[in-house]
Specification:
The protein is mainly β. It has one domain: Jelly Rolls, CATH 2.60.120. The protein is 5% helix and 51% strand. The protein is built from 2 helices and 12 strands; from the N terminus they run H-H-E-E-E-E-E-E-E-E-E-E-E-E. Strands 1-12-3-8-9-10-5-6 form an 8-stranded antiparallel beta sheet, with no helix packed on it. Strand 9 and strand 10 form a beta hairpin. The chain starts with 7 loop residues before the first helix and ends with a strand.
């Protein structure tokens, strides 16, 4: 990497130091839950961009806290902005470890995978609603606007499980459609998202 030395004249010509800091990760939208049934991103709605502008999109879900104890955490996709029922095939494995050190496991998780299913994709299994419990992680969605290829996604989550234990999930799959994916919805299996934040980024030049 070349080093650049700025003088007083050249430094005045810099129009955006922020872009130098953020690099290829471009913030698009932040949603914050407050007893929300779901957090949903729809292309073209409320300043959300989820189209051919970027080849990869990244969702970061941060401290999602369920109102109801022991909830699955879900994500699903739409091609029409209304129906979140895109056909998906996926694979999931997880690593777990109890707080009392009485249980530890690494396994393939058949209960969370999908085989041409239209239901929600689980990205968490049993998040506790203790005051200090939540689930956090990230999901990458690749080329959602393609009308040629399926739409791949990869997610990983860190969950405070009801046992109590740390559960670390690794999920990958594809939306088996050649229609453009235009929206993404996050929710819990039952009850509201009591608190938490999801941030959407576009990854340029990728």
């Amino acid at each position: 990497m070349a080093l650049v030395k700025y003088n007083d004249n050249s430094i005045s010509a810099i129009s955006s130091a922020g872009q130098l800091a953020t690099g290829s990760l471009v913030p698009i939208k932040t949603l914050t839950a407050s007893s929300s049934s779901n957090l949903t991103f729809i292309n073209g709605s409320s300043d959300v961009v989820l189209d051919s502008t970027y080849p990869i999109y990244l969702f970061k879900y941060i401290n999602l806290h369920p109102a109801t104890d022991g909830q699955e955490t879900h994500v699903n996709f739409t091609t029409d902005g209304t129906n979140f029922n895109v056909t998906k095939t996926s694979t999931v494995f997880d690593a777990e470890h109890n707080e009392d050190d009485g249980y530890a496991n690494l396994s393939y998780n058949t209960a969370m995978d999908l085989a041409q299913g239209t239901g929600d994709q689980q990205i968490g299994r049993s998040t506790a609603n203790d005051n200090d419990s939540c689930i956090s992680g990230e999901l990458f969605l690749f080329n959602p606007s393609s009308t040629t290829f399926v739409k791949h996604y990869i997610a990983k989550s860190s969950e405070a499980h009801t046992q109590p234990r740390e559960s670390n999930f690794y999920i990958s799959g594809y939306c088996n459609t050649t229609s453009a994916v235009t929206g993404v919805r996050f929710d819990f299996g039952s009850g509201n998202i009591d608190a938490g934040t999801i941030k959407l980024y576009g990854i340029k030049d990728s």
